[in-house]
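User: I'm writing a tutorial on reading structure tokens. Could you give me a worked example: one chain, its sequence, then its tokens, then a sentence or two explaining what the tokens reveal?
Assistant: Sure. Here is the example chain.
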Amino acid sequence: MRTMTAPGDLQQALFLRLKTDPSLSALLGGAGLVERVTATAAYPYVTCGQTCAFDWDSGAENDDDQLITLHVWSKAHGDAETIAIMEAIKARLADAALVVGPRGLTRLTLEFSEHRYDEELLEHHGLLRFRALTQEDA
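And here are its predicted structure tokens:
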């Protein structure tokens, strides 16, 4: 029986890597990485969105290959803050190799990013989607 890397384990590893980045911490100021958003959450902050595990060849669920989305939220005037936070996350995670669980290295690649302004919420919203591929130890 093989051990799987759970999406929650991947999220914890990503957040740990991000929390140890002084430049990102400075941009976020305080507790800017949140697992669950509360009504009192201070802006700017980063949350983890949808995570899915998928076998691209067969279409079956497979924890070896996962997509994870990070969301950046800001109420600053202009988009400079959102872009700076996104760039810091990209620098910290793009092409990173993480140890997630007992199986080996999980390599990250940036698949997609965008930022936009939500006129209804009056917030800037950044999205970063990473592909995480776990390679079992030989």
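What the tokens reveal: The two ends are 16 Å apart (CA to CA). The chain has one domain: 7-136.
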